[in-house]
């Protein structure tokens, strides 16, 4: 603490303030998550079919509704809050919602898309739909709990909704949606205010349902992901020193600046909310730009895929099979050691990378205000 106090005055002031506040630990009894594949724990799988093997191989040893070899960042968040992993709201088999629910689905966008999953790959469960689900969940829970027995055990008490942590990790697909429809970077930029406006509305709707504590991830460096680099052509001069495509990363950073602005507006408009903005972008970019520092060998090349510069082929995603001599064989297999890869399948991060991301963001060093996850319920007075 002393070393920090002398190295950074503002952090010192905050830490000292925190130390003086009620134990600085929030005891969140539940978590409600909204998002895309970065935080899906089974939503898309429940509706459109299970993500295939080798998804889940490292940690769950079988597919577990996640688009990675193991856990996603919200799993690590839940674990550190002392909560079981979140059941997907859409998963009606074996779910326990007493400690929260996960509304995220892979392929989700903030704005509803005007295409089907089959046409574009984007989920119909956009953020507005996720909010509708949450609204239903919140309003039907007390009615169901009155039936007692298992309903009481599998659903949260009313008071949990105002004490829970509400997490958001969404926006990446809104950026790629435009590019995949052949829009230029300036066309994508032009619709960002609409996307951010819709995001802002949803957070205030959750507040109106009693939500108070918000943990909002910004969007990652999409220009470092093979599925973007392989699909959207750019010029050689637009590749940065790490090997990422700058135009997409610049748009992601534009989105993030706008998101931070939205968070500041929400703090004004929702006086009882504690809203933490979390700079996941910087952590993800560090893993890719300094892989060896975090124990990785391959920053861009995927672990699970087939062919090409990045071991990624859009037509043969992770787990894809083909008929060879009348036998079905897996063509897009996973690598020997996923923990050496930052990227799992061209789109998503490996469990090892997700663990690193969590390790960095939990401390508060990448957050505004710079409070640790365990203190995200504290409303920081303006410094
Ligand atoms: C649901 O999860 C909670 C922990 O959050 C646990 O105490 C409870 O026993 C679980 N209920 C059932 C029926 O498994
Ligand atoms: C979908 O279409 C509606 C009506 O034309 C339009 O307002 C909306 O912006 C479109 N959404 C997207 C993501 O393009
Ligand atoms: C985008 O452009 C490519 C190449 O010209 C074309 O094959 C594809 O159909 C276009 N996609 C859309 C959604 O217009």
Automatic annotation (TrEMBL):
Gene3D superfamilies the record matches: SGNH hydrolase
Xref: InterPro entries: GDSL, SGNH_hydro_sf, SGNH_plant_lipase-like
KW Hydrolase (keyword) present: yes
Keywords carried by this UniProt record: Glycoprotein, Hydrolase, Signal
GO molecular function terms noted in the UniProt entry: hydrolase activity, acting on ester bonds
SUPFAM superfamilies in the cross-refs: SGNH hydrolase
Signal peptide: 1-24
Family: Belongs to the 'GDSL' lipolytic enzyme family.
Protein name (record): Uncharacterized protein
Species the sequence originates in: Eucalyptus grandis
């Amino acid at each position: 603490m002393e070393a920090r106090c002398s190295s950074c005055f503002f952090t010192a002031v905050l830490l000292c303030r925190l130390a003086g506040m009620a134990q600085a630990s929030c005891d969140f009894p539940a978590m409600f998550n909204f998002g895309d594949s970065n935080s899906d724990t089974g939503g898309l799988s429940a509706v459109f079919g299970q993500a295939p093997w080798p998804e889940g191989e490292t940690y769950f040893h079988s597919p577990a509704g996640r688009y990675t070899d193991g856990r996603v960042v919200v799993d690590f968040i839940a674990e550190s809050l002392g909560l079981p992993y979140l059941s997907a709201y859409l998963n009606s088999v074996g779910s326990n919602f007493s400690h929260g629910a996960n509304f995220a689905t892979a392929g989700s966008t903030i704005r509803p898309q005007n295409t089907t999953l089959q046409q574009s790959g984007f989920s119909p469960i956009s953020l507005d739909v996720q909010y509708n689900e949450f609204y239903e969940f919140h309003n039907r829970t007390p009615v169901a709990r009155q039936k007692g027995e298992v309903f009481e055990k599998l659903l949260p008490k009313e008071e949990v909704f105002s004490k829970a942590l509400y997490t958001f990790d969404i926006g990446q697909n809104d950026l790629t949606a435009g590019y995949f429809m052949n829009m230029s970077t300036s066309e994508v930029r032009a619709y960002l205010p609409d996307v951010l406006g819709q995001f802002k509305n949803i957070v205030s709707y959750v507040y109106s349902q009693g939500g108070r504590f918000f943990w909002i991830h910004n969007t990652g460096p999409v220009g470092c992901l093979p599925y973007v680099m392989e699909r959207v052509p750019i010029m050689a001069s637009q590749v940065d020193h790490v090997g990422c495509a700058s135009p997409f990363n610049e748009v992601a950073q534009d989105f993030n600046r706008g998101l931070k602005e939205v968070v500041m507006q929400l703090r004004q408009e929702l006086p009882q909310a504690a809203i933490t903005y979390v700079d996941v972008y910087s952590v993800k970019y560090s893993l890719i730009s300094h892989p060896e520092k975090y124990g990785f060998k391959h920053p861009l090349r995927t672990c699970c895929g087939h062919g090409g510069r990045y071991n990624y082929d859009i037509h043969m995603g992770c787990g894809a099979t083909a008929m060879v001599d009348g036998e079905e064989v897996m063509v897009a297999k996973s690598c020997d050691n996923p923990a050496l890869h930052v990227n799992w399948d061209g789109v998503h991060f490996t469990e090892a990378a997700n663990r690193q991301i969590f390790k960095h963001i939990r401390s508060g060093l990448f957050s505004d205000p710079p409070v640790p996850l365990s203190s995200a319920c504290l409303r920081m007075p303006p410094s």
